[in-house]
Amino acid sequence: MKTILITGAGRGIGAATALLAAEHGYAVAVNYRKNKQAADNVVNRILSNGGRATAIQADVSKENDVLRLFSEVDEHFGSLHCLVNNAGILERQMKLVDMDYNRLQRIFNANIIGQFLCCREAIKRMSTKFGGPGGTIVNVSSIAARTGSPFEYTDYAASKGALDTLTLGLSKEVAEEGIRVNAVRPAFIHTDIHADGGEPDRINRVKEAIPLKRGGSAKEVAEAILWLASARSSYSTGIFIDVTGGK
Ligand code: NAP
Fold it and tell me: Which of ligand 1's atoms lies nearest the C-alpha of 188?
C-alpha cells in the first residue's frame, strides 16, 4: 500500500484529495493546521470505508512542525511515496500599497517556505539516492501565478509564482532520483478560502467570465492531483495542469 501525505487535508481541495486517494488505495496522512474536527471527519470517513488514514496536526509554515509531521508519518506508515503540497492561505483583498510586513511574512511562510521544507523532508525519504522507493510530489499552485491577482492579492499570486518555479527547478533536480514533481493550478473552486479573502461569494461574481460559466468542485481538482501523483502520469515531470474552467 502506498502512502500519500496531503498537507491542509482537513477541508477543501485537500480533504477531497484525501478521500479520493483512499478510494484509489493509498494510506493517507491527513495534515491540518488547527481544525482537528474537520481532519478527524476526513479520517473517519476513510476508516469507515475500510481505508487507512491518520490525522497529523502541523503548521507547515513552521520548520519544527514540518520535521515532526514527517517523523509522525514515518512512525505511523513506515514509508512515504507521495507528497501533495496543498496547504495554502490568502488574506483579505487589498492593493499592495496597503500590505504590511507581517501579512507578507504569513503568506510567504505558509505558501512557499513551508513547501520548500516539505519537499526537502519528502526527498530525504523518497529519493533512490538515499535508499528510498522514489515517489511523486504534487504542488497545488493557482491560476494567480499567471494573472498576478491585481487589486486582490498580489502577495498570494507571487507566492504561487514561486511555487511554479520551485516545481520546474526541483523536477529537474530529482528526476534521476526516482521523483517526479508536478503542479496543478486551480481557480474558482468552491471552498472556504474565498471567505478568508473577504468575499465568500467571489465565484458567483466572476462566473460569467469563466468559459465554463461555473465554479469547480474540490473533487475536480483532486482528480488532476491524483493523476499526477500516480504512475498513470509516469512520463510527466515539471508540468502544470490548469483546473480553471477554461480561464
Ligand atoms: P481551504 O478550504 O481554505 O482549506 C485550506 C486547508 O489548508 C485547511 O485544511 C487548513 O487547515 C490548511 N492549512 C492552511 N494553512 C496551513 C498551514 N500553515 N499548515 C497546515 N495546513 C494549513 O483552501 P482550499 O481552497 O482547499 O485551498 C487549497 C489549496 O488550493 C491552497 O494552496 C490554495 O491556494 C489552492 N487554490 C485554491 C483555489 C480555490 O479556488 N479554492 C484556487 C487556486 C488555488 P485547517 O482546516 O486546520 O485550518
Answer: 40
